[in-house]
Every structure is written in structure tokens, then in C-alpha cells.
Amino acid sequence: MTGTTGRAGYQELWQKQLGMIRMMQATSERKALAALTVSGHVVLLDHAGQEVWRTFVGAAMRTISLADTLDVLAVDDSGNSLLIDARGQIQWKKRPTAAVYGLISADGQYIVLVTREPTVVLADRHGRVRWTYRNLLKVPAALDISASGQTVAFACRNELGEGLQAVAMDGRPYDAFMGLDPIQDIAVSADGQVTVALDRGQCIFCINCVRSIGIWKGKLNADFSGVSYADQTKQTLLYSRDGLLTILNVEGQPSWEHRFQEPLFRARLTSDGQTIWYATPEGRVGCLVSTASRDFSRLEFLDVEPPSSADGASLPAFRKVWQIDLAGGAGTSRKPLVRTWLGADQIEYALVWDGRDTLHCRNDVGDEIWTARLPAGDVADIAVAAAADLAIAVGKNGVVGFRGDGSEACRFFGNFCAAHLFASGALLLLDEKGAVQYHRHPGQPARTIETGGATVALLGSEHLARLVGKNRVVAVDTEGNIVNEIELSAEPVFQRMDASGKELVAGLRNGDVLVIGEKADVLRRANVEGGAKQVVIHRIEDTMFIGGAAGDGVTILRSGDGTRIRLPLTGGVSDMCLNRQGAVIATGIDELVLIAPDGRIQARTTFPDKILQVLPCRTDGSVYVLGESGFGKYAPGAEDRVMPSAVGFLEV
């Protein structure tokens, strides 16, 4: 899924199937969404897509509205109103007026109800009526309320025709905007000043309803059905029933669009413009996040202390799920290697070189898939391409390839230190001089890729490789062509692919940490005093875990609330990987530590082996640990929350 060329798009953070739903509402921040199911349940999902609570309200419930406080207002077929608190408990069921539908303000203090009379009624959160507006000839088809109830705006029809009316908190109406086509949706800014209105004539209006002046208007090229407004960025999101999403900039001009392959029931843009909530008629709800560049090096983070964790004696430990012993590696210069991948059968596999002469292929429950012998000599790297049904091992003695069943696919001579496989079966090989060879198929004649300098690492996905040099990163496609490149301000200290497998994370000697997209654009930037040797990004929590090069522990940057947590770890950070609960960190004294995004230590274990690498498990909350003498799967001892995988992002 791609957005408009040259503009930042959105990628899917998570999605969830709830079954048939009648309505979806979301908070103005990336906090939560609520859905009303056909069966009569109100379901609240948090920012990670996890169900917080589910409350039965009855099949007669018609509409719901969600406040930023996570209070829910529901209205049933009989005109009764129901208030549900943030814990899912029903606070009251009242009838301030015989309502058709209603909304609750973002601060949870006011509710506005529409009746069949027709009237519009503002009441406080206890149902006490503040004012009633009666100058209407039909039931308003659209309604919105500002964050603290300062302004209520609604579609109106009177003797002057169709238009837009706004009313202040004290019940005083502002001047109406009349002579419009029927209004079908309205979005009011948090301060109540700005209103964006969408009519049935494919026109959109942005007005200051308090001062009664227009800001901009536009003619649309599609039949949109809904609108939302981002206060901080002044962007407007439009969505249509047939699946079209369009974002307008501060001047009302289109800046991005995307068409879903299925109809859209509802969509909302958060106030910072970073998140789009959406729902489909079939009950799929989800969250899209912006891929626009974010420069954290310019932000001032507030240092805070992490919440107190349990003492060491009561902390949960990691429990061994399974482990295999490795014959080589311990006490030698040759260390084991591992690569993991998710197969087409949605089973995760691991290919492990034991540090001596054997390759082991295991599935995620530890079952042996196949084992193969390698000729004596060092293995410098292994690479896997599931789509090509191919795995290779490279080293001083050349290249050996294996099919998915463990049978040998190819063998040829050479001296290589790294390899990368594409889904097509094409192969990149890096020699000790920093030159990269491209083979359309293993064993076929090679050609050298000219990168303008020595390459120090090969990384990437099955469709795009990253050639990392001392001063640049070059992107190469499956045909061996250079498609993008980016100059680096300093030499990389470390480089790795992020959990999605599409973005490169690099730490430079000058302390910069860069997240580089597939188009060689910098998506995120941060600067770490003293430099970084390991970085993990938890996208769901919008958090960056940074292992300092000075060996003093981990720094957690929480861009959502602008806070920074410094957590000292004895021995420093030797490796880290993403986990559903935060990040799993291997320390220099071979401790395995699970740290939550808020800095709380969730689990801790002293490992009996020298830890070489930790890798995330894509199918559950476990972690793979590669040691000098073993490889296995480990899980936190306490039951962890089931959270959606942070891998496999869907590009929008």
C-alpha cells in the first residue's frame, strides 16, 4: 500500500477482528477506540489493540461516543442515555431527554443529545440539562462538541434553508452559516473555534464559527462520508464508504490519499496527525501510524524515574521453553550463528550454525526440521530466503546452499564474509575487501556492484538489500540495481534491521541514531551522548530503547509523553531485541532482562552461558537466545499480556 509519491504515508500498526459492529469511536489521542457490536456489547481496545473491557449494553443500543477519559456515552432505541466509565462499569442510565443520538466531550464532562422534536440539548456528565436549542425544522444529521464543551456545532435547517449552527457553552447561538447543501458530517477543534463541515454536494468548508469567518473551502472529487480534524497539525481527514482516505493540509489542499481494498465504516485522525483509527463494516478495526520523519534530536526530554520494580528475589525469571546444545563455539574463536524467519505456514523457523560443522534447522517448538554437515572451516554468515526456498552458508571455503528440506542446492568456491538472499533467489556476497558481488542465481556468473567505497555490512529484506559503508548506505533491488542511497554524517558503529524488516537502524560515531526507510529517507533521528551500540524501537508504545556505547545501561526515550528514563545495568548492554512487553536486553555479565516501556523491570535471569545474541519471537512473547554452547527459546516466567506482533508492518 503506497501513498502519494514524495509524501509521507502511513503504515498499519495493528488490526483486530471484532465481528459485525454498528459503530466505532476513537479518542483524539492514540489512546483507545470503542466499538458497539451487533450483539450489544461495547468493546474498548487500548492503543495496542488489546481488549481492556467488554460490557453488555443490549442489542437495542443505537450509538456510542468515546471521551479521551475513556468514558463512553451510549444511546438506545428508546431514547435512554447510558454512561460507562473507564473501567467498563455502567455509572447510570437516564433520560435527560428522548435522544436519537449523542456525543460526550473529550474531557468527559459534557454530553450533547439530539432529539426527534427536533432539539439539541447540552447536559453535564450527570445528565443535568444546561441548555436546549429548538430553532430547527429537522433532526440534525451531523453533530460535534469541542473538547471541554465550549462549542457545540450541528447541521441545521430553518426557514433560510440548510446550514451550520454553533452554540456556546452558555446556550448563546453564534451566527449560522446558511445556504449550504445538507451537511453530513462535522468536526470541531478542541478549543471550539474551528469547525470543518462536509456537505452532500462534494464540498468541504473550514470556518471559525465563533468569529463567523471562513478559513478555506474546497470542492472534492469523490463522495466522502465523514471528516475529522487534527488540532496540532491543522490537517483534515476525509473518508468514504468505498474505502478512500484523503488528508488535506492546513490550506485544504490534498496531501495524501489511499484506497482500502474494502469499504470503510469510520475513520478518525488523532490531534497530532500521527495516527488514523479505522473500522470496516465486517468488524475489522485497526490503527495506522505516520511514517513522516521525526527528529528526536531536537526534542527536550524530561528525565523521570522508572516505576519501582519488585526486588530481585521476587522478580519473575525467564523459563526455558526448549534448548539445543551446540558442539562448537565455547572457548573457541568460532562463534555460532543464527537466522530466524516466518514461513508461509506462519510457523517460525531458526537456522543455526553450531560453530563447528553442522547446520540445524528447527521450528518454534524446537522440533528438528533438518540437519546438514558443512565442510570444515569457518562460517562467516548464513542467509535465508523463504520465498526462494533457499538457505546459504558462506565463509573462507565458499558458498553452500540448501533447499527447504535440507538437501544441497548449490556449492561454489570463494572467500566471503557476508551474504544476502532475495526472494527471487538472487544473491549478494561481500568479500573481505568490501566488494559486493551480485549473482542472479547462486553459482551463476557474478558482477560487482559499484557503491563508491568499501561495504562493511549486508542487511535488508527479501526485496531490498542495504549495503552499509563507512559513509553511506546504498539500497539494491533484486536485479542488482542501486535504487537509492544516503550519505552518512559519520561512520556507523552498529547497524540492524528493525522488527518490520523494512527499515534500517544505524548508530553513528557522532552519537546520531538514524532510522532509514526503503527510499533512503531518514524516518527518525535521535542523538545519544556518548553514542549508542544497540537500539530497539517499540512502535506500539512509540518508545526507543538505546544501549549506550559507554556501557552504563539503557536509555528509554518515550516520545509519546516526552520523557526519558535512564536505567543502569551492570555490565552494560551487549545485545537487545524487541518484545511485546518492551525490550529484552542481554547484559555484559550475561543477564537476561525484560524492560517495559515505562522502565519497569518485568523479568530477570542470570544466564548460564555466554550470550551472543537475543532475537524476538514473532509468534508469541518469548525470546530466542543464542549462547556459545546452546540455542533455545525462553519466556518470561509470569504470564505476559498478549499483544500484537510488532513485525510485519503493512505499508500504506
For the largest sheet, list the strands in their spatial order: 26-27-28-1-63
The SS-based structural class is mainly beta
Q: What's the number of domains?
A: 3
**What name does the CATH topology of the largest domain carry?**
Methylamine Dehydrogenase, Chain H
Which regions have little confidence, pLDDT < 50, spanning 5+ residues? 1-7, 639-652
Strands, count: 63
**What coarse outline follows from CA principal-axis ratios?**
elongated
**CATH architecture descriptor name of the largest domain:** 7 Propeller
| Percent strand | over 45%
What does this 3D model show about the protein?
With 652 residues, the chain is mainly beta. It folds into 3 domains: 10-288, 7 Propeller (Methylamine Dehydrogenase, Chain H), CATH 2.130.10.10; 293-353 and 488-652, Lipocalin (Beta Barrel); 374-487, YVTN repeat-like/Quinoprotein amine dehydrogenase (Methylamine Dehydrogenase, Chain H), CATH 2.130.10. The chain is built from no helices and 63 strands. A 5-stranded antiparallel β-sheet has the order 26-27-28-1-63, with no helix packed on it. Strands 29-51-50-49-48 form a 5-stranded mixed β-sheet, with no helix packed on it. It has a 5-stranded mixed β-sheet with strand order 30-55-54-53-52, with no helix packed on it. The protein is elongated.
Write the layout of secondary structure elements.
Layout: E1 10-17, E2 21-26, E3 32-37, E4 41-46, E5 51-56, E6 61-66, E7 72-76, E8 81-84, E9 90-94, E10 99-104, E11 110-115, E12 120-124, E13 129-133, E14 143-145, E15 151-158, E16 161-168, E17 177-178, E18 183-188, E19 194-199, E20 203-208, E21 213-219, E22 226-230, E23 235-239, E24 244-248, E25 254-259, E26 266-269, E27 275-279, E28 284-290, E29 294-295, E30 302-303, E31 318-325, E32 337-342, E33 348-353, E34 358-363, E35 368-373, E36 379-385, E37 390-395, E38 398-403, E39 408-412, E40 416-421, E41 427-431, E42 436-439, E43 446-449, E44 455-460, E45 465-469, E46 472-476, E47 482-487, E48 492-497, E49 504-508, E50 512-516, E51 522-527, E52 532-538, E53 543-548, E54 554-558, E55 563-567, E56 573-579, E57 582-587, E58 591-595, E59 601-606, E60 611-616, E61 623-627, E62 630-636, E63 650-651
